[in-house]
From TrEMBL:
Entry keyword annotation includes Aminoacyl-tRNA synthetase: no
Subcellular localization(s) per the UniProt record: Cytoplasm
One Gene Ontology cellular component: cytoplasm
Entry keyword annotation includes Metal-binding: yes
Binding site for GTP: T146, K147, A148, D149, G194, P195, S196, G197, A198, G199, K200, S201, T202
The protein, known as: Small ribosomal subunit biogenesis GTPase RsgA
């Protein structure tokens, strides 16, 4: 019988065991992806850390990603990933290539820390976009305003107003302020997302209690950060659970995030339920509760405009995906037809 005690620091627990153990095929053992590197990956296995061969990189739809649970073949000279086990959650954005496919940023995540530097421009629209990704992933989002010690003003109330259902905290990794509050919010596997310069790696090191990830200073002129983190990497937390640091996000395109948008803008959805007409477009219709909320100051025009913007973007992505799937189905039917025609030609030539 395989002893999985060495997997416990990497997120293996009773619930994970109950879910995955029946899926592990004979001749293989469970393992978790710590870091991807093209055709290979670092994994945590029942016998300790290992370097394993895998067929696809995390840049491909459905490919492996940091945080994935997999099975490894046993009894071979070189550990090889045999099977990607079903994901319980995944943070996905549209591919940076612009193609109609999704990119997994981290898998099997329980808590998403949305990091924004408090000493710079706190972009509420960007926070709303990242909240939509986090809610859609089936994980719990926490908005973290980092570098609180360097900020003249911390807009915590404004951030909380655009994050209904989520917790927002301000912390300083340098002084330790707020870290005890943040640590109490962490659950299971924690992923950090945000733009370069948001202090993700510095915060990750503070939570890990060691200088694990490289850090660099932002430009003093515009507070822009450099891409210090280039790989997604999973590490055990000293307080239990695991942490995944991710590279800075330049573009945060939505990928099938309808539910995430609805939860991010639950206040607008709540107003809309009181509109006179069920199909109200919230433009100029009489009895529109959304427009009424804007007029009396219960809802800002900026937030409503971003709600519409993200909805249109998501609709375009879904339409592109539908067209891609239809094109794939058409190609498959053409291949079948071609094979059938060739079959009939071969059959006729034998007569």
């Amino acid at each position: 019988m395989v002893d999985n005690d060495l997997l416990i620091p990497y997120g293996w627990n009773e619930a994970v065991s109950d879910y995955y153990t029946p899926l592990v095929t004979p001749g293989s053992v469970p393992a978790r992806v710590i870091r991807m590197d093209r055709g290979e990956c670092d994994v945590a296995s029942p016998t300790g850390p290992a370097r394993a061969r895998c067929s696809r990189s995390d840049s491909e739809l459905g490919g492996l990603c940091t945080g994935d649970w997999v099975t490894l073949e046993v009894g071979t000279d070189e550990p090889t990933v045999r099977q990607l086990l079903p994901r319980r959650s995944a943070i996905m954005r549209s591919s940076v290539s612009g193609r109609s496919e999704g990119q997994v940023l981290a898998a099997n995540v329980d808590t998403v820390l949305i990091c924004t530097a408090a000493d710079g421009d706190v972009d509420l629209g960007r926070i709303e976009r990242m909240l939509a990704l986090a809610w859609e992933s089936n994980a719990k989002p926490v908005v973290v305003l980092t570098k609180a010690d360097a900020a003249e003003f911390i807009p915590l109330d404004e951030v909380r107003a655009v994050a209904p259902g989520a917790t927002a905290v301000a912390v300083s990794a340098s002084t330790g302020a707020g870290l005890d509050v943040l640590t109490a919010l962490l659950d299971g596997t924690v992923a950090l997302i945000g733009p370069s310069g948001a202090g993700k790696s510095t915060l990750a090191n503070a939570l890990l209690g060691a200088e694990v990830f490289a850090t660099s200073a932002v430009r003093s002129v515009d507070k822009k950060g450099r891409h210090t983190t280039v790989h997604r990497e999973l590490r055990p937390l000293p307080t239990g659970g695991t942490l995944i640091d991710t590279p800075g996000l330049r573009g945060i395109g939505l990928w099938d995030a309808s539910d995430g948008i609805e939860r991010t803008f639950s206040d607008i959805e709540s107003f809309a339920r009181h509109c006179r007409f069920a199909d109200c477009a919230h433009d100029s219709e009489p009895g529109c509760a959304v427009l009424a909320a804007i007029e009396v100051g219960e809802l800002t025009q900026r937030r409503f405009d971003n709600y519409r913007k993200l909805g249109r973007e998501n609709d375009r992505m879904l339409a592109r995906t539908d067209k891609r799937l239809q094109a794939e189905r058409n190609r498959a039917w053409r291949d079948i037809s071609k094979q059938q025609r060739q079959h009939y030609r071969d059959r006729n030539s034998r007569r």
